[in-house]
Specification:
The chain is α+β, with helices and mostly antiparallel strands. The chain is built from 3 helices and 3 strands. Helix content is about 40%, strand content about 10%. It has a 3-stranded antiparallel beta sheet with strand order 1-3-2.
Length: about 70
């Protein structure tokens, strides 16, 4: 039901972001990513679109020297 509405569970969220499932749980607990709960079973759920936006942000190169994106 929730998956058809654009939500994914921990394992799929971890695969999308290429991190361990425990990392997803920790990021949800600390508020780094928004965590939703399934109303019937209380499973953790994450919006696929939000994860894809985060992934795009994580893929942007950043120069450590001046903190600005590199454009080469």
């Amino acid at each position: 039901m929730m998956e058809s509405e654009g939500f994914v569970r921990v394992k799929e969220a971890a695969a999308i972001l290429d991190v361990a499932p425990n990392t997803i749980r920790a990021w949800g607990a600390t508020g780094k990513i928004t965590e939703y709960r399934h109303p019937a079973n209380n499973y953790r759920l994450y919006k696929r679109k939000e994860l894809e936006k985060l992934l795009a942000k994580l893929r942007r190169p950043v120069s450590i020297a001046n903190g600005k994106s590199e454009t080469r």
